[in-house]
């Protein structure tokens, strides 16, 4: 057996280091897919990539490792010591994995052309994985939503919501305060599955426990409901939590608590909130200037007055009766979405 040249040893060390880097990065992503998103498909994709990388991580490459003499082990940056959110961790490790796979693709061609080819394909898989994690994340859908349906009790709820979804509705909150838990769970599950079929978000009203039970995308809380931190413990970091607000003080508190979005209103008087004084458009204008998170104007909004709300720079609009009581929910939804853009 001939001794390895210094050039070959360098290539082996590069391959060894980047196989480690890619495997570590993809494992961090896999754990989030498994334990936070509870998505077996994405977790399985990550696992298959790890296993393919492991098959190339041979003893031949490992034996070339020389950690004590590696000048790169002492290199660091202050930003590497701080992480602010799970999303930042995912972004960093997706980039880390992509970079490592690019190195493996190029130097792998010198080791085995098949290695270079497989690493190229895995790099494309990581790009696809990244788009699944962020482009279609609940938070991304929330930010892009402009129309939000809050349901009211009716025997036709499934058909009404389905028609609205066919009209392009991106976000639904199931609200049936007087119903027993068993009814809310049954209807919640049906509506949640329906919304996901149309790639729309589904939230439960008030009850984080029921949101968890029906696999909702999150929960909407009133001022007298659970603290947001408590709801977060129940639902996990990746779920959406909204809070109703009626004035700047409540808005500020909701944002400080960590709400993902807020409701702003009631803009106009509405039987949905009996006894609640309308805030008018002044609060809408205030939210437009001061809210750093997505928000939806709500309360008595319909096709006749939605233009005024949008002109006051509402981020989005939440609707109840205008859709739930409509003779043609699909057509009304299409009209409201057109006005809300």
UniProtKB/TrEMBL annotation:
EC number(s) given by UniProt: 2.5.1.3
The Thiamine phosphate synthase/TenI domain, residue ranges: 147-323
Transmembrane segments: none
This protein's GO CC annotations: cytoplasm
Superkingdom of origin: Bacteria
Residue ranges constituting the ThiD2 domain according to the UniProt record: 13-131
Protein's UniProt name: Thiamine-phosphate synthase
């Amino acid at each position: 057996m001939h001794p390895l040249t210094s050039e070959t040893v360098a290539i082996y060390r590069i391959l060894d280091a980047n196989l480690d880097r890619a495997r570590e990065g993809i494992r961090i992503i896999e754990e989030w897919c498994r334990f936070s998103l509870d998505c077996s498909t994405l977790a399985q994709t990550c696992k298959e990539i790890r296993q393919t990388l492991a098959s190339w991580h041979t003893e031949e490459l490992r034996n070339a490792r020389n950690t004590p003499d590696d000048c790169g082990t002492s290199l660091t940056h202050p930003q590497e010591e701080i992480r602010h959110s799970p999303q930042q961790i995912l972004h960093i490790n997706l980039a880390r994995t992509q970079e490592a796979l690019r190195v493996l693709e190029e130097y792998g061609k010198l080791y085995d052309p098949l290695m270079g080819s497989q690493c190229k394909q895995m790099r494309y898989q990581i790009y696809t994985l990244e788009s699944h994690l962020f482009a279609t994340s609940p938070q991304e859908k929330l930010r892009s939503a402009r129309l939000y349906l809050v349901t009211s009790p009716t025997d036709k709820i499934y058909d009404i919501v389905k028609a609205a979804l066919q009209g392009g509705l991106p976000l639904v909150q199931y609200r049936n305060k007087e119903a027993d838990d068993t009814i809310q769970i049954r209807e919640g599950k049906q509506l949640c599955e329906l919304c996901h079929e149309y790639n729309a978000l589904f939230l439960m009203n008030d009850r984080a426990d029921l949101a968890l039970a029906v696999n909702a995308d999150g929960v909407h809380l009133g001022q007298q409901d659970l603290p947001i931190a408590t709801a977060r413990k129940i639902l996990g970091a990746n779920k959406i939590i909204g809070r109703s607000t009626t004035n700047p003080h409540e808005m500020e508190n909701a944002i400080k608590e960590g709400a993902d979005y807020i409701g702003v209103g009631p803009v106009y008087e509405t039987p949905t909130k009996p006894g609640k004084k309308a805030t008018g458009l002044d609060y809408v204008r205030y939210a437009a200037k001061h809210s750093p998170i997505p928000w939806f104007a709500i309360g008595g909004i319909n096709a006749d007055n939605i233009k005024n709300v949008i002109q006051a720079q509402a981020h989005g609009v939440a609707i109840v009766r205008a859709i739930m009581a409509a003779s043609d929910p699909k057509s009304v939804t299409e009209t409201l979405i057109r006005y809300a853009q």
